[in-house]
Amino acid sequence: MIKDLWYKNAVVYCLSVETFMDSNGDGCGDFEGLTRRLDYLHGLGVTTVWLMPFQASPGKDDGYDVADYYNVDPRFGTLGDFVEFTHAAQQRGMRVLIDLVVNHTSDQHPWFKDARKGPESKYHDWYVWADQKPKNADEGMVFPGVQKSTWTYDEVARRWYFHRFYKFQPDLNTANPLVQAEILKIMGFWTQLGVSGFRMDAVPFVIATKGEKVVKSKPQYDMLREFRELLQWRRGDAIILGEANVQPKTNMEYFGDEGERLHMMFNFPVNQNLFYALASGDTAPLAKALAETRPRPSTSQWGMFLRNHDELDLGRLKPAQRQKVFDAFGPEKDMQLYDRGIRRRLAPMLGNDRRRLELAYSLMLTLPGTPVLRYGDEIGMGDNLKLPERNCARTPMQWSDEPHGGFTQSKRPVMPVIGGGAYGFEHLNVAAQRRDPDSLLNWMERALRMRREIPEVSWGDFEVLDHSQPGVLAMRYDWRNNSVLFVHNLLADPIEFELPRQKLGPDGKQLINLLTEAHSQVDGRGRHRILLEPYGYRWFRVGGLDYLLKRSEA
Ligand code: MG
Fold first, then answer.
1. Can you point out the beta strands (E) in 392-543?
2. Where is 373: in which H helix or E strand?
3. Is 436 a catalytic residue?
4. Torsion 454-455-461-462 (CA) sign
5. Could you tell me the pTM of the whole model?
6. What does the mean pLDDT of the chain come to?
7. Could you read off the pLDDT of 65-102 as tens digits, one per residue?
8. E strand or H helix at 499
9. For residue 475, what are the β-bridge partners?
10. Closest among 252, 273, 267, 291 to 372, alpha carbons compared
11. How far away, in angstroms, is 200 Cα from ligand 1 center?
12. What does the angle CA 74 – CA 78 – CA 82 come to, to the nearest 5 degrees?
């Protein structure tokens, strides 16, 4: 039954337990605090919570350096607290995805500690070693400018080990069948505790061939099929959402021709070109990225996002385009990161301009895929550029105007809450925005509710409509005899947008506005003439409001 594909029309919300809500006053967010805030997320319209890593970890890379895959870091609670959380989510009809970080472990993981003893250790071959410093040891860093190499000498093992990320994150030898079996065991464990799937970290690196002799690594795509098969046996509706910032031409390798590999992937090409469109007002490259990422199996789905917990990676834009985004959204050196991206949160990037924030979210919600929100962006939280690297956009959630934004009773929060200035918790917080009917939070709640009622975006076919105004993106979706139309003005000027009714199918005489009373009728020459304010957007249903009837007949 195709309607069982719950992830197609989900609203995903990404958060870090560490910085969301502290229940016990130790300054660190925890599962009990998060569980108490589930009704907030439910009310906002979130259907799926994606948790960043919460497993036991030295925390040198925000939990992406796991030291025990089968435990909750004691700072966040216990496995018992975790199960209470997944149960509470289930009670509200919500699902939980968790990060699966298996490209590498922490160097403090017992496997690596044992592996360092040398080839006689049963875990030695779980990692990637070389006797001599490999020739390409200074290439392929994930964090250029911060990370110095990809091979490091280990004094105990007296061998070099491979690490695609920081040197405290040794790569697992994912070609080793024992490692693969362990990855399946980890997935089986957490599904048993109530999760609906995994956001798989760094997929291209997980499936890459690794080793000193590897000049150009080859992806082992079949590994993805094996991961998926286990999931389907253990829990039929569990999914893998892959982080794979790859060329569009390889997308089908990740999804699988029959959709037998990853269920979902983040759409990085659209993300980067969306920011270019927001910066330049030119929608043509975004339309091209949409066309290039269109092919996918019918059961597969894109994750659409604006900002995430990493830097905004612009590595796939042309240099001149990238410069334009830097100039518009991150002109200062300390706003940029790793020579390829911007580390700020969305609201400061857009100058805290409400019109532009709504435009950006409206675009994200109406592009073909499942929207993935980042905690705090629903209230327009800011960043703290004094914090190193990506931490600037990982500050605690701002709940109220109480000390430390109501995040913790402790005087020492795990990360400083943003205070003072335009983005300070004193006035930018959930409690204040709840009371204000015109707040971004309440706008978001209404937008998410309406988005959930437009399954055409998740399930339908889309067409980017041809017209003569490059500053306007007009898209039509068709599904089960119904059509919707979204129009976005990327420019700072008002614009009169014209669309002949022929572009809208047989019901195109009338457009029902889904957000306001401003509907549209064709004029005497058979055209819709829509006056868009600066950064204006429209969500229309094509034809009358009898679509629910038509849908049930389809
Ligand atoms: Mg705590």
1. 461-464, 472-479, 482-489, 495-500, 510-513, 520-521, 527-532, 537-542
2. strand 370-374
3. no
4. positive
5. 0.96
6. 94
7. 999 999 999 999 999 999 999 999 999 999 999 999 99
8. strand 495-500
9. 464, 486
10. 267
11. 26
12. 125
Structure tokens at 452: 């959930």
Token pair 């805290």: residue = 352
For residue 75, report the distance from its CA to the centre of ligand 1, in Å. Answer: 6
The confidence band for 549, taking pLDDT boundaries of 50, 70 and 90, is low
Q: Spell out the residues 6+ positions from residue 522 whose beta carbon is closer than 8 angstroms to its own.
A: 501, 508, 509, 510, 528
Distance 438 CA to ligand 1 centre (A): 33
Ligand 1 centroid – CA 50 distance (Å) = 19
Q: Taking each helix axis as running N to C, give the angle between helix 354-366 and helix 440-452, from 0 to 180 degrees, rounded to the nearest 10.
A: 20
Q: Which two tokens stand for residue 349?
A: 């990037």
**H or E element: which one contains 183?**
helix 177-192
Q: Is 386 helix (H, G, I), strand (E, B) or coil?
A: coil
Q: Is 243 a catalytic residue?
A: yes
Catalytic residue among 201, 377, 383, 456: 201
Hey, which residues does 51 pair with through a beta bridge?
15, 98
77 CA to centre of ligand 1 in angstroms:
8
The H-assigned helical ranges of 244-345 are 251-255, 268-280, 284-292, 319-329
SS3 for 284?
helix
The residue from 62, 243, 378, 507 that is catalytic is: 243
